[in-house]
Amino acid sequence: MRKSLQLILLLTLFIANESKGQLGNYWTLQVSTEGTLLSGALVAAKSNNAGFFYNPASMSSDQESSFSFNTSFFRIYSLNYKNPFGKNTDLNHFTGNFDPIFLSFLIPKKNRLNVKLGISLMGKQNTDIRLEDRVFLKDYSFPNLSTSMGDYEGIYDYRLRSSEYWVNLSASKKFNEKFSLGLTTIIAYRSLDYENNMTSNYVSSNLLDQNLTSSFQTLTKSFMYNYKLIFKVGAIYTINDHSRIGLNITTQSYNIYGRGSNKKSVSQTNVGNLILDTTGVLIDDHLISSYGDNLKANFKSPFSIALGYNIEFERDQFGIAIEYFNDIAPYRVVTGEETGNFINTTTNMVSESDFLDLSYGQKSIVNIAVSYERHINEAFTMLTGFRTNFTTSLEAGYSEEFKYNHIEDIYINYYHFTGGSTFSILNNKFIFGTDIAISFDSDLPNVVNFSEPLIINDQGIPLRGNLENNASIINFMIGFVLGYSLMF
Q1: pLDDT tens by residue, 145-171
Q2: Residue 255 to residue 263: CA distance in whole angstroms
């Protein structure tokens, strides 16, 4: 019985909490101010200053050199989470952050090969979130230990900082009036700083009026970075003077170099003093802990393929884009190693390298975007769009190998509504608008159940209750967009 309880505990120590960073919502950020206000429906656009991203073949139609950047793109998030830590618990979080910078420089001047070139710098993701909460129960008695009464607390401490930056080198060529090809080579840098800490404490008194403290804690602190290569290949086919279809293929990422660290520990104290199992064997105190530095690391990007159609009339333009993102089978973001500094006071044999792994995986999805653009006059243009931003979270889709040591992304879908306008004077274009997104989901499992704790729950975890599917999330986001382009 002791070995089975220890084995269950050893497995459950790897469980990670719900991540609020939405690592798998690929379409949260669009590229360039115009790309954002048109919700990214630019795969078949005739011309745009972010063609290197949406379809490098579209750069071939640009007739002028250009310099573009986002001067400001501030997002505000409001999260309302019902029952994340058990029944009758709430988590409300309000925060804001700036999106990463976007810079592009396009040189469409003719050369012998009639190849047009561009270089750009952009931020693909910028997440910085910290969530903390505490559930306190005064004079609490466990259901199967009603003769004892004490004070219980559950502490949740979560942080996720993640960013990815791309340097893009692009080239495109117009072969004839109907067909263009383009290529973008991307050098990407990704960083991830992750902390996940859950602690349960229970303080009661014995017959001698002496305080007895029981506790259980799981702690993970990870950091990683990596450099990788990604390629985009695009094609544009012109149907007539007013409409085009586009294809943009983005390869999976190819890791160049990456390193990371991982600190993990699980500790249990005095839980055995609360209960005896059916054989009369106490649940032992123990500590499992290790710290690995300079570990191999890699954060992968998926293969994707996008199709688009754009059409222009005298004053109006419409666009649609559909993009399929391939799944990423669970893999090791940080690969553990044997450090020789492993502490394991249980009787179970566990590999330190497996213990130090940090894993991740994502499912395949399809997103869709539509846009509408209205030219009021030579100076003013109105832009609006809608896009889906579905999550790639695997939920319970991990195999046994990765089941207990992975990052769980929050399972929630966003719906974005965008709108704004441009103002042009001479060769200068000023762009401003908003990106509003809503997300909601219900019947979700608790992150952890602190409100109805048990001595041992049905997963074999001490001092926590059974997970129930009674959680729900409503998330609101608004982004303020300012941009500038210079044509010369």
Answers
A1: 766 789 999 999 988 889 999 999 999
A2: 23
